[in-house]
Amino acid sequence: MGIPTPTTETSSLYEELLARDRRKKFRRRRLFVSLAAAVVVVGLAVTGVVAYGYFSIENGIRRSDILAGQVPPLNGDQNILIMGLDSRLDENGKALPAEAYDALHAGGADVGGYNANVLMLLHLPADGSKATVISIPRDDYVDLVGSPDGVSQGKIKQAYGYALDAAMTRLTTAGGMDESQIYQAARDAGRKAEIDTVSQFLGGVQINHFIEVTMAAFLGVAKAVAPITVCLNEATQDTYSGADFKAGIQQIDAAQAVAFVRQRRDTSNPDLELTDLDRARRQQAFIVSVAHQLQNKGTFTDLGKLQGILDSAKSNIAVDSGLNLLTLAQQAKSLTGGNMSFTTLPITGFGTSPEGESINTVDVDQVRSTVKRLLTPPAPAKSPAANATSPEKQTTNTVPAPSEPSDSTQAGPAASSPASTPSAHADNHYDDWTGALQGGAVPCVR
User: Fold this and answer.
1) Residue 337's CATH number
2) Cα(305)–Cα(294) distance, integer angstroms
3) Whether 360 contacts 12, CB under 8 Å
4) Domain of residue 177, residue span
5) What are 39-80's pLDDT values in tens digits?
6) Which residues touch 282 (CB under 8 Å, ≥6 apart)?
7) 35 found inside a domain
8) Residue 101 and residue 88: Cα distance in Å, rounded?
9) For tag attachment on the chain, is the N or C end more exposed, with fewer CB atoms within 10 Å?
10) Is residue 118 situated within a structural domain?
């Protein structure tokens, strides 16, 4: 695929990532998008059954026909692509309220663009077995389907923006449409290019539906569900993001949630080296924590919180015309019980594109092999012993979860040391970003 090789062959992957992060001290605004997308999806999934009848969630959500006519999968499984855009506008291209820009500290309406800075594939098996969320690093250097805007290769996140730009130019020149129609048609072109590029990169995986949000959703959702319980392996501070957290279980408000998902460095402890991939793991942990909280804090019957979640999402979300949100809610409700896991696709290193941009290099065969394994796991062996004491059952059903503090407690006891074997996570602690993060309890992360 002509992917550039890493610029520093002798450096380890971790060292290269640290170096790249240090060169980007002020790149902060894109953080909210991934959390907004995933938290909104979780919120819709776990609250949809109740909220559908009370609040008519269909009203106000933009629909797109780009996946119309697609043949449903024979096995009934669903693959939903979650896209979060680096945009400071709502789904109608309108500016956000001034207080939203102040709270996000991410610039004004003229900052940002239409890169798909979060890409998560949510796989929902028809039989109700464990759902899988595959995080696709946004800087993976890939072939862009259709060469949007004349660009054949680029970061996977850029397919959306290139296609939107080309469509805006073409439709404006052709005439016959007003500005609003041109804008929405161009958005559809961006969505189609991004979906096709992701599908090809993953090995031809069929994407049945999409959910797209802009960054305004995160703060509103965080306010609606706060206080939020999180857990950290170490105490940490960061002057850039404003993070100031103790070790262990603690409850945070919406403003602290913003700092929690933004932090990718520690400015107080030189021995604690955080990276962008650690931050991605934080985001996954945050989503799991919110899902766990919605299940256990009575949110299903708290109409005020339900209304807040949905109001935060409506003007900042778009979905395909074939996605039935009620059906999704019914199918995905089990996610709050821990019936899901998060995995980030592997990269091989870091490099520089011909345009001089920092990129992730990838082994496409490795990526596709990983996706195939995640979406079609082998059937477990059947035996009396396995039914009683299999490692999977021990991990998902019998692992003690960190206990949550009461609503009046701001910090719990210090977290125990991370598990010595990262893949085991026997105490629900994760000491790096590799492997699968399991749902069902508040995870402790870096």
Assistant:
1) 3.40.630.190
2) 10
3) no
4) 13-225+270-385
5) 555 555 444 434 443 344 556 678 899 998 787 777 788 899
6) 260, 261, 263, 445, 446
7) yes
8) 8
9) N
10) yes
